[in-house]
């Protein structure tokens, strides 16, 4: 079974966390939610979420994908935590996926990771991204083992791309059969 880690930092963007958690779990991917701090983590819209684990408890585990939700405050908190950098370096050294959305791609730039990879992000951080790496027009960008997306409004596309990369197009189609997103593959719902 494929495994994904979603890291929640105080101030994370709720949609960018919950949509991938939900859709990946529908795809039968084991999703582990870990907080930078123990206990409840409060998002940017003051929604409080209790992660499955403290990040410290899962640092030695292997994940097929590490997912970084954005949110301006959330991304700043991710950047301040050396454990996040070390975890992302481990992902890269083992050829595993990293997915970051909204302001979270700025973490990769600050950490000096994937210095040549193209990425998408929220327009509010365009100035933080080297212009030769920035794709201002694509909702979701895949470059090597990096998946990035613009913002909360692209969370479904972002999650579908993670599923596609971990399990294939058929898994995306299966999830969308009941989810019925206009952003997923076009299909008729199954009628029981």
From TrEMBL:
Descriptive protein name: Peptidase
GO CC, alphabetical: cytoplasm
InterPro entries for the chain: Class_I_gatase-like, DJ-1, DJ-1/PfpI, Prot/Nucl_acid_deglycase
Residue span(s) of domain DJ-1/PfpI: 2-164
SUPFAM superfamilies listed in its UniProt record: Class I glutamine amidotransferase-like (SSF52317)
GO biological process: glyoxal metabolic process; response to oxidative stress
